[in-house]
Design goal:
heterodimer; A: alpha/beta; Rossmann fold; 2 domains; 7-stranded parallel sheet; B: Rossmann fold; 6-stranded parallel sheet; about 35% helix
Chain lengths: ~375, ~325
Amino acid sequence: MKVCAVFNTDQLGGAERSFINSLADLPDYAKVSIWIPKLKDPERLEQTILSLLPKAHVMRFKLNGFYYRSSRTSKFSKPLLLLSFIFALWRIKGFPLKDTDILWLNGNKVGALFTVLCMLRNWKGSIWWHLRDYFPASSLLKRLIDRKTPFEKHFIANSFSVMDDFKQQYPWQKHLHVLYNSPPQVAINASEAREFKGSIGIASMLTPWKGQHDILWMAYRQEEKLVELGIREIILYGDDIYLTNRQHQNYKAALEKIASKFSQIKIVFAGLKPLSEIYSSLDILIHSSIKREPFGRVIVEAMANGLPVLSTGLGGAGELVNNERAFCYEPAHDHMFIEALESAILDISNPVRRKKAIQFVNDLQKQIKQQYSDLIGSYIL
Amino acid sequence: MLLHGKNVLLTTPEYPPHQLGGIATLSKTIVDALEAEGCTVTIFVWRKPQEVNQAIKNFQGHLIHAHYWPSLWIASKDKKRSINIIHGAELLTYSKNPLIHFIKKRTKKYSNRALEQACANIFISQFSLDKAEQLGMKINYSRDILFPNRIDLTDVKMTKASSLKDSDEIKLCCFARDVPHKNIQGTIYFSELLADISKKKVSLRLGPGQYRSTKIEINCEVVKNEQRDQIYKDSHFNCIFSLDQSHIGNVEGFGLTPLEAAKHSTPSIGFASGGLTESIHEQKTGWILKSINRDSVEKWYREAMIHYDDIAANCFKHTINNHSSSDYANLFLGLWS
């Protein structure tokens, strides 16, 4: 089985870490070639791939950044997108597909691009289009997906929420699978009591739908109460890692402005840091997405590292959190947020929910093994 | 007294008792909350937004606009000290008059610029914030803040919700104006289906209007404000099936009645329309239906019979803990610091 795995971006985010883990779990008889689009700086992603897959053959292919930015501009979106798509297609015209059995595409940008490439080349194989996000309602994409092709199209959603959403748009698509993002191994003692040092934080890209502003505003309004709870600092890990326009512009500046209002609690913009540093620095992780989260990899990572998790539980994240193993709150609900923090702080020294969270991560690993086996099985059949 | 010594001018198109509605209720709630914390509040009720210029001419202090239209007419220096409350529908450019509709569309960028100059814009729902962005406003998250509606919860106590299982009658209420997007006919249809499915007597308390049904009992006598609380208390469910008619200028930005009903442990049922899903938290403080038909109402009724007591208790607790008007003090203190 020859698998050609194509990353959607050259930046290392949750989707990319999950993809690397999935590739590592492919059966031994699968021969994998890995392709990264050369956009900004693929070094970090490439190093991470090689650290987990030392025998991997990692290659780069040229792609224009404008293809990513054009879908997020407000005016003339469609014509610009089409133009950038055609240019991107021209760029990848020589992409080697010979003898490839499975083309595993880790996102919509490469999904659409390579599907058209395969159609033009009359390629016969199997495309695995990995849905890392809710599928956009687009007439162009609809025409592409509904079109009859010489190759099979499999759609892999990273949560049941994403799959259900896709099914609503494409109820006649046959090959739909769910493959949860694989969590890291649990490396801590579930019963170990810890000390709360006063650091809470968020680890995700800096973009409005991830809700960092919501946390800062609630924390600012309730600063006195947070100080009483022992919170000294709020650390924001992450950056605007994807090439985007509109919503994300000036977002970090807005966050910095809110941060400047605090008088007692320190707000730290820590940028991109290794996972080990993030999970050792924080006492509590906040998953603050204010829109549906396709999965929420950071939730399971934090759980596996023994951190209490606060979450809005929207979308796919709702399949990971509940009040037994995490601490749920609603966006812009100050008192729910404070209550969740209070309970999470208590759980650090008396880890009732932590044990359930760790059990959940172990169960999730088994569930993912089964999902993966079903996916490979469907290809072989 | 967090806001002692602060001088505030609140401008609004509606204020009780002369005018009633969501904006009137919100205006009064904010005024009461600010005064409770030591603020001196002057209220200016306008018929035309331009009138506000006279009111703020010699006013030294903070400005709050319960409806943002005056922001389009005041000077830049006054825009900069203004806080606008954004509900949703007032952002839309639709007008029945094609010429006015055309002018509104063409001048939308100017109203967006007015909002962008404000000290702060308080959006009562994420839906309204998203709508503003869709309509071209440049959102700045240090200025444009989501703050769901609050209500006065002074002296509110937990009352036992009217038992659903033991009752031979299901009591519904729906306090909404008789305008198309409030979907009163849809509410009546829902009630009729419920009567059919439950085999119980269903009564529906509406606002004033001409409504009839052969399957349910409808009461649409004029309701005084003092009577509303009792009606909520006696009802099993509050209905709010507002439609999203953004294309003709009507949409529910948040929906206050679910909070008003929850104050009396009465859960709400609504549509996934506008900001309603932020007022009613599905299966936590009420239910959201995708459509009104026999299947969906039957499915909902089965769930309601099992979970009613929990949801009734939840909606009360959630509202008490998260939607108290006393939160406005912290909000405005933070913005004025």
